[in-house]
Structures are given as structure tokens and as C-alpha cells.
Design goal:
The protein is an alpha/beta fold and 192 residues long. The protein has one domain: 3-Layer(aba) Sandwich (Glutaredoxin). Helix content is 32%, strand content 20%.
Length: 192
């Protein structure tokens, strides 16, 4: 089943260059009352360690479903590397979910080549189902400090859209955030 789903996504990507999945307008961050709890999971990362989404509670998380063969995914990765580096001290984390069929065989060399500075787990059909089915790559969820989905993007969106969504959540501390005065990170992360 997983193989069939990924094969369909790969075929669509090959035929369209993934451009059919490009969002036309950015999605707005949902009001707190409209956010639903993100499905928890426990998956292995490329080093074999178990990663649970619930372990990130208290942080804003950019959860990115991607694959090594997906060109729009490759375009986003440098942005995510920069966000991880620039915002990690503000209770922010990037977590990648590889949907490559061959798992670590493709992912490990890719991570080494592109020097990803954030964790990547190997996705499953079951995890895709928990998120309503991942039908296009990239698919990215931005999760608030309480573990709720604040925004979802299907397809490639601009760096500025991600930046605005992330800053919206970082600049509005939740009950678990003990950071005193927050400095807007525009000066630290470029908006290319």
C-alpha cells in the first residue's frame, strides 16, 4: 500500500515536476480554538533512535514530509536548515519525515551531502494515514507549543510564508513558554 501511494506521488511529480502541487495562496495560521492536536508518533531517525512528536511539546515545530527525489522539497531544505540554526534558541525545531520507499538507503547519503542540521525520521504509510494521507510532497505542518496543528501547507510555498507562520507562533508565547522579551528574528533570518 505504501509503495503504491508513493509510486503515484512519484509519477505525478515526474509528469508535472511537482508544480501542480504548488500552493497559490499562503495558508493562514489557524486561530487557537480551531487547532486540532497533531497525531503523535514514534519513529526511528536515520541513526536508529526513536523520535516522538510529543517529545517536542513546548516548542514550535515545522514538520516536513518530503522525499529525496522531490525537487520542490530540495528547494525548501536550505530554508529549513537556516530556520533551525537561527531559531533553535527560541524553542523552535524542524523535524523532517522522509517518505522515500527505500528509507535510510536514500536518506543517509542525502543528509550527508546537504548537511541537514535537523532530525529526519523515516515515514510510514501508517503515519501518512494519521495525517489524513500525504498525497503530495512536500507537505508541511507547523505545530504550536501545545502540539496542535496551526497551519498546513501542501506543495511548495515561499520562504517568506513559512517565516511569517513561524514568527506568528514564536511571537505569541503559549502557556509553556517562559521566554521573557522576544526579539523579532527578521534581523537573524533573511527573507529570500
Amino acid at each position: 500500500m505504501k509503495l503504491r501511494s508513493i509510486a503515484l506521488v512519484a509519477l505525478a511529480a515526474a509528469l508535472t515536476g511537482c508544480s501542480v502541487f504548488t500552493s497559490i495562496e499562503p495558508t493562514r495560521v489557524k486561530a487557537e480554538k480551531d487547532r486540532k492536536q497533531a497525531p503523535d508518533f514514534a519513529l526511528k531517525d536515520v541513526t536508529g533512535q526513536t523520535v516522538k512528536l510529543s517529545d517536542y511539546r513546548g516548542k514550535v515545530v515545522l514538520l516536513n514530509f518530503w522525499a529525496t527525489w522531490c525537487e520542490p522539497c530540495q528547494e525548501e531544505i536550505p530554508w529549513f536548515i537556516d530556520f533551525q540554526q537561527s531559531l533553535k534558541d527560541r524553542n523552535f525545531e524542524v523535524l523532517g519525515v522522509s517518505m522515500d520507499d527505500d528509507g535510510c538507503d536514500s536518506v543517509k547519503p542525502f543528509l550527508a551531502k546537504y548537511k541537514l542540521n535537523y532530525r529526519v525520521v523515516i515515514g510510514t504509510e501508517e503515519l501518512s494515514g494519521k495525517f489524513g494521507g500525504i498525497d503530495a510532497l512536500p507537505t508541511t505542518y507547523i505545530i504550536d507549543r501545545e502540539g496542535r496543528v496551526a497551519v498546513a501547507h501542501v506543495g511548495l510555498v515561499s520562504r517568506k510564508t513559512y517565516q511569517n507562520d513561524i514568527f506568528n507562533l514564536l511571537d505569541h508565547p503559549g502557556p509553556q513558554d517562559s521566554v521573557g522579551s522576544l526579539v523579532h528574528p527578521d534581523a537573524r533570518v533573511s527573507s529570500n
